[in-house]
Amino acid sequence: MKTVRISIERFVMMLAIVGLFVAAITRENAPSLEKSQMVLADSVDAETGLALDPNFAIIKAQCTGCHSPKLILQHRFTRDEWLSKIRWMQRNHKLWDLGETEKTVLDYLAKHYAPNQAAYSRREPLRNIKWYKLEQ
Ligand code: HEC
């Protein structure tokens, strides 16, 4: 039987190439929030996943300092409910007074993350369910 000899450098090089190849493939197939979000909004910011509109920068500044923007993406509230979430964070989690930007923040949230809009994490509750009797 013939043995093939290769230098250690060549072997390491081959390992590196195979490793890069595998990394490239798995990366391509990994599900990403950004990609799924694309389907839900006309345009979203690639970094945060938040909907892009002229007020996006204000929301990014006021709402992504303490926690992931996913906390916003995962929720759907009416304007009043968003306001009470903000008050709740102000009472319990040291969220600052949003001042003049509060109205803008609420407009943005009510526009993009209202209850009737598709959420990333949860579907809408089922409606008009037709129950049927299980026959034994
Ligand atoms: C000063 C820090 C801070 C800032 C700034 C902040 N939050 Fe929060 N927020 C929190 C904390 C702390 C929680 C609780 C996190 C947890 O439960 O893990 C939270 C929770 C939330 C939740 C989940 C609420 C729930 O019922 O579970 C939402 C939605 C949310 N924040 C939205 C926002 C929005 C919108 C803004 C911008 C106006 C914002 N946050 C800015 C601290 C902050």
Set out the fold topology.
Layout lengths: L7 H22 L3 H8 L15 H8 L6 H4 L5 H14 L8 H12 L24
Helix pairs in contact: 3-6
The protein binds heme C.
Heme C binds next to helix 3, helix 4, helix 5 and helix 6.
Structure summarized in a few sentences:
This protein is an all-alpha fold and 136 residues long.
Descriptive overview:
By secondary structure, the chain is mainly α. It has a domain at 33-112: Cytochrome Bc1 Complex, Chain D, domain 2 (Orthogonal Bundle), CATH 1.10.760. The chain is 50% helix and 0% strand. The chain contains six helices and no strands. It has helices at residues 8-29, 33-40, 56-63, 70-73, 79-92, 101-112. Helix 3 crosses helix 6. The longest helix is centred in the first third of the chain and has 22 residues, at 8-29. Residues 35-39 have low confidence and may be disordered. The site of heme C has 16 residues, from helix 3, helix 4, helix 5 and helix 6. Heme C is lined by residues 62-63, 65-67, 71-72, 75, 85-86, 89, 93-95, 105, 109.
Q: Give the ligands present.
A: heme C
| Fraction in beta strands | under 5%
Give the CA-based shape: flat
Measured between the Cα atoms of the first and last residue, the distance is 69 Å
CATH topology of the domain at 33-112: Cytochrome Bc1 Complex, Chain D, domain 2
The radius of gyration over CA amounts to 24 Å
- CATH class placement of the domain at 33-112: Mainly Alpha
User: Architecture of the domain at 33-112, CATH level 2?
Assistant: Orthogonal Bundle
Mean pLDDT: 86
- Going by helix content, strand content and strand pairing, the class is mainly alpha
Series of H and E elements: HHHHHH
How many strands, which pairing sense, and closed or not: the largest β-sheet? none
